[in-house]
Amino acid sequence: MSTRKVVFYTLAFFLFVLIVPQLCAQNDTSMSPSESAIARKKLVDYSKQFVGKPYVSGGIGPNSFDCSGLIFTVSRESIGVQLPRTTKAIYNFCEDIKDNEREAGDLVFFKTTSSGEISHVGLYIGSNQFIHAVSDGPNTGVIVSSLKESYWKSHYICTRRYLPSSNSELLADSSPKKASSSSEAGSNSSSNRSSAASQDYVRSDSDSFLQSLVLDSSLSMDWSFFTPDRFRLNFRGVDLMLHARYAGKNLQPGLGTYFRYDAGTGNFQFPIVLSLTLNEFFRVFAGPVISIKKPHLPGDSDRDIKNSFFPGILGVCLSTPSFKIGKTAVSIVQDIHYTVFNDTDNSALSFTKSVPTGLVLATGVRVTLPLKSVL
After folding, report:
1. CA-wise closest residue to 4 among 291, 232, 305
2. Which has the closest alpha carbon to 272: 230, 233, 252, 244?
3. Quick one: which of 40, 65, 205, 217 has the fewest CB in 10 Å?
4. Catalytic residue check, 296
5. Which of 132, 243, 317, 337 is labelled catalytic?
């Protein structure tokens, strides 16, 4: 096996070792209504021990918190569900619900800054109250507030959830239904409500995959710092990426394809990649590459080379925090990827030729759209 392929497989192995154990450790938040009720109670009870702790930007406890750090830690430590770290990422991770569906254990979101973006989150604990970490005002740190308070009422945006509904009247704000005058009717009514709740939950489970799909597309300019014979800034082409990921877990698997013109090698490439999105800022990907037209060595159009189908491409994608335009989120992305090229006889290129040929940076714009927003 060539040295270049050894390097490629070594990088892939280390990515596998770092990522897969974390993926296996993620928690499936699909649970029955009764299991959800237990989880929600644990979540609320666990959070109350931190009331009085000070606010510190970036704090995730146990001695200080910021607003998203409190939610992140309480969820992870009480019920073993790891949420994204930032308020905006938690907001995007959760499912929107109506205010009259709110239960203890859901999350309430606010816009508290002049930017007009989601900037604050709290844990709803019932009776219009929520626990959160506050940075300024008459009371700071981890406190209990009411949604009826004028400030929070005017800055409230919505309630979202990441745990299924418990269908529990003890956790919901709605008043209990009146019992039937007939014990038999009461029994039938209870049975019917239970059956209906079960059917609703099954429908929710069957739809959960589509509801958790997130679509994104990016348009990038490719470039590099050097060719095999000189050090200089090089235009390496353009690419369009189409991608879908399953956002039901913190580590989010995905599938995508690139439509790329590589000006350096004079070649059209169509990588098909499997990806893992670790958080809203970082993604890794790898996969085979389909090539159209014979490539040549960058800076030497007379020296033909060959695109490797597999191993094809391995890379990482870095992203800035996104901003909203309607239902879509827009961010700046920076890909760093390595594509494998061989000599025409399938032998490996030398290191000084393979790295300048295969290592490319792509800078562009990504547009993200949760599928549930258009369903």
Report:
1. 305
2. 244
3. 205
4. no
5. 132
DSSP string, 280-344: TTEEEEEE-EEEES--EETTEEEEEEEE-SSS-EEEEEEEPPPEEETTEEEEEEEEEEEE-EEET
Per-residue pLDDT tens for 256-283?
999 999 999 999 999 999 999 887 789 9
pLDDT tens string 22-75: 444 344 446 888 899 999 999 999 999 999 999 998 899 889 999 999 999 999
* Sole residue written with tokens 């394809």: 257
For helices 67-79 and 33-47, give the axis angle rounded to 10 degrees: 130
Handedness of CA 159, 68, 331, 319 (dihedral sign): negative
To the query of whether residue 67 is one of the catalytic residues in this protein, the response is yes
Does the annotation mark 155 as catalytic? no
Catalytic residue among 67, 94, 243, 337, which?
Answer: 67
Indicate which residue of 94, 120, 243, 317 is catalytic: 120
Answer whether 0.90 is exceeded by the pTM: no
Tokens in use for 227? 């060719």
Note whether 320 and 313 are within 8 A (CB): no
Collapsing DSSP to helix, strand or coil, 232 comes out as strand
